[in-house]
């Protein structure tokens, strides 16, 4: 997929992985509108990116993805500005076991609602132009973690939702392809946690120090997936397994869903 001129809406883009993805898309000639709950950082990022690219190509709008009206209004602002949205990216997320219901509202409900809003807009069988819906999930969504059970569950919910749409027999009529990047811990502000935000924090911090990846690793994986026209329903793990490169696995095998494949010919851990 040629990203030049593509119209993108992304959630949680003020900093971290979301900002990294926006910058990579802008560098390929895409136009990006991003929302965030934090207006200060959002505005600052908007200014910096507008200086680097152009004021027409990137803009910020304040929205809380857990609020259905705010999320819908922000997405519609992107449609009004660009004429349509070709690529929708659910990235906003939080990690705090102390407010687990709020975490579900942001990570699971906010993401699923984002998918639904974008799908309605993009579906060819409903007059749309087709498109791509990408999700920044987590390696926690592929397995389990005693450090943060509710966070893990919120990410599993997204994968279940996304793969169910990706394997729909009507997916070709929808003309929308789906993908998830699933990183291990990433070197962002999210790792600066307080006691009780997750269980066993000090043990986790020791573990994270040797396992974390960089934003650029996640962006690299995202860019491969978003540009691959043959990819639908991919869950791309981003981790330091296999000497620091990432591998890609696809868990859905039905008609019209890309076949399983391994990137860089590396086996997925546990497979030979
Ligand atoms: N940092 C990590 O170790 C990992 C992060 N992830 C996921 O990546 C995504 C991005 O996380 P990071 O960049 O690391 O975090 P971050 O905390 O650096 O950035 C998240 C951004 O989302 C915004 N945000 C939070 N709640 C929001 C809401 N309700 N509405 C709109 N915007 C909101 C924040 O203001 C912030 O700008 C999240 O979904 C996270 O779960 C996945 C795997 C590992
Ligand atoms: C395996 C769960 C990864 C979850 C990543 C995530 O979404 C948020 C991470 C936040 C803090 C870091 C916590 C734990 C991850 C640390 C190491 C996991 C190592 C797994 C492995 O590669 O064996």
TrEMBL record:
It is an enzyme of class 1 (oxidoreductase). Its EC number is 1.1.1.141, 1.1.1.232. One of its GO terms (molecular function) is 15-hydroxyicosatetraenoate dehydrogenase activity. Keywords: Oxidoreductase. It catalyses: prostaglandin A1 + NAD(+) = 15-oxo-prostaglandin A1 + NADH + H(+); (15S)-hydroxy-(5Z,8Z,11Z,13E)-eicosatetraenoate + NAD(+) = 15-oxo-(5Z,8Z,11Z,13E)-eicosatetraenoate + NADH + H(+); 14-hydroxy-(4Z,7Z,10Z,12E,16Z,19Z)-docosahexaenoate + NAD(+) = 14-oxo-(4Z,7Z,10Z,12E,16Z,19Z)-docosahexaenoate + NADH + H(+); prostaglandin E1 + NAD(+) = 15-oxoprostaglandin E1 + NADH + H(+). Pfam families: adh_short. GO terms for cellular component: cytoplasm. Gene3D superfamilies: NAD(P)-binding Rossmann-like Domain. InterPro entries: NAD(P)-bd_dom_sf (IPR036291), Sc_DH/Rdtase_CS (IPR020904), SDR_fam (IPR002347). Belongs to the short-chain dehydrogenases/reductases (SDR) family. Catalyzes the NAD-dependent dehydrogenation (oxidation) of a broad array of hydroxylated polyunsaturated fatty acids (mainly eicosanoids and docosanoids, including prostaglandins, lipoxins and resolvins), yielding their corresponding keto (oxo) metabolites. Decreases the levels of the pro-proliferative prostaglandins such as prostaglandin E2 (whose activity is increased in cancer because of an increase in the expression of cyclooxygenase 2) and generates oxo-fatty acid products that can profoundly influence cell function by abrogating pro-inflammatory cytokine expression. This is 15-hydroxyprostaglandin dehydrogenase [NAD(+)]. It comes from Pomacea canaliculata (Golden apple snail). The lineage of its organism: Eukaryota, Metazoa, Spiralia, Lophotrochozoa, Mollusca.
């Amino acid at each position: 997929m040629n990203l030049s001129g593509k119209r993108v809406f992304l959630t949680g883009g003020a900093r971290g992985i979301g900002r990294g993805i926006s910058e990579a898309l802008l560098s390929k000639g895409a136009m990006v509108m991003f929302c965030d709950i934090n207006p200060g950082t959002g505005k600052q990022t908007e200014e910096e990116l507008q200086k680097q690219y152009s004021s027409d190509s990137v803009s910020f709008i304040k929205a809380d993805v857990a609020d259905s009206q705010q999320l819908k209004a922000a997405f519609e602002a992107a449609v009004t500005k660009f004429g349509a949205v070709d690529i929708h990216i659910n990235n906003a997320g939080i990690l705090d076991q102390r407010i687990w219901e709020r975490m579900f509202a942001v990570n699971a409900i906010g993401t699923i609602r984002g998918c639904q809003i974008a799908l309605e807009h993009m579906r060819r069988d409903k007059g749309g132009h087709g498109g791509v819906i990408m999700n920044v999930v987590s390696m926690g969504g592929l397995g389990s973690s005693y450090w943060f059970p509710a966070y893990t569950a919120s990410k599993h919910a997204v994968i279940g939702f996304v793969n169910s749409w990706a394997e729909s027999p009507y997916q070709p009529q929808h003309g929308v392809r789906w993908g998830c990047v699933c990183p291990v811990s990433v070197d962002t502000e999210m790792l600066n946690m307080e006691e009780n935000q997750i269980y066993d924090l000090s043990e986790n911090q020791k573990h994270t120090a040797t396992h974390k990846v960089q934003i650029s690793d996640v962006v690299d994986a995202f860019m491969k997936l978003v540009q691959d026209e043959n990819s639908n329903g991919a869950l791309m793990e981003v981790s330091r397994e296999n000497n620091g490169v990432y591998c890609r696995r696809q868990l859905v095998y039905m008609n019209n869903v890309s076949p399983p494949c391994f990137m860089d010919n590396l086996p997925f851990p546990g497979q030979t």
